[in-house]
Amino acid sequence: MIKVIIERRIMPGLEDEYEQAALEAMRVSLGIRGFVGGETLVQLGHTDRRLMITKWRDLRAWKEWHASEARATAMQRILPLLTEDETIRIYEAGY
Fold it and tell me: DSSP letter at 82?
């Protein structure tokens, strides 16, 4: 099991539009094999900053989703709403 942490910064005033686009992307990912679950957090005092924590069966499942046409389509709605490139970090359980 891995967790993928995605940080995004949204253009001021476009938070509601971003929420709709991100929700749709999450809905699409629910049908992807290997997707276990996820949550989105808003940084306190910074409504333009989001942290997404998604859980995947394994790295292969995440890579398949990341390279998929479905994610590319979802990102077409999200990317124009961001002020900078998203940051993606992948974690596994520590020992």
Answer: B
Interacting residues of 12 by C-beta distance below 8 A, sequence separation 6+: 48
Cα–Cα–Cα angle for 85, 90, 94, rounded to 5 degrees:
150
Enclosing domain of residue 84? 2-92
Render pLDDT for 48-64 as a digit per residue (tens, 0 to 9).
999 999 999 999 999 99
Per-residue pLDDT tens over the stretch 12-52 = 999 999 999 998 888 888 888 999 999 999 999 999 999 99
CATH of the domain at 41: 3.30.70.100
- How many independent structural domains does the chain possess? 1
Q: Give the whole-angstrom CA distance, residue 70 versus residue 80.
A: 17
